[in-house]
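Appendix C reproduces, verbatim, an entry submitted by the partner laboratory led by Prof. M.T., so that reviewers can inspect both the input and the predicted structure.
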Amino acid sequence: MSQDPRTALVVFSGGQDSTACLAWALSRYSHVETIGFDYGQRHKVELDCRGRIRTELAHAFPAWASRLGEDHLLDLGLLGQISDTALTESRAIEMQANGLPNTFVPGRNLLFLNFAAALAYRRGASVLVGGMCETDYSGYPDCRDNTLKALQVAISLGLDSPMTIETPLMWLTKAQTWALSETLGGQALNELIIEHTHTCYLGDRSQRHAWGYGCGHCPACELRREGFTQYQRDKGNA
């Protein structure tokens, strides 16, 4: 694959999807940096995973190590202060009257990408990469393709500079995301994802499953488990 000379900035939470996106970016762009956000999430343990994942990726994939640049962690505590969600407070996860789970943090991805764009502009990056997806997802409106296309236009106009938002997982199921990471880095990358990434909304890393750590019953764990099971089934039928 020919190398894109641009610099990419990956929105990197420390979860499965953002790690797959980081690998995807490292396989394509000449220079890749990462950005994470501390917004008072109850699964803050994901932030502790970020550095370890970057270290393990660099160790396991030397060709990617030469492209992996700086990491940036921004404090967006204000978002947590104005949110009233099960992702920022210790409360039961349930569906709301509007059809969305109460883990939806309004404006989260909109803010993430705006702050990422501001940093990318200063760092000379013109590509933002995010793990948003509207195939196997919780219905969050700020993960939808139309939202992100509109945001790409607004950001590019507001900066008076082209800023591309790449969402490599947008039309993939969770099973296909597992298959993508295997294509990018083989079984070694999937083992790294299983062992070091974090997805569980409750921040539970006390239980190790075949698909990784988590409580096993929150929506994030269910999606990850079901995707892994289907991925294994698809491999067996291949």
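Residues 4-173 form a domain with the Rossmann fold fold (CATH 3.40.50.620). Additional entries are available on request from the coordinating office.
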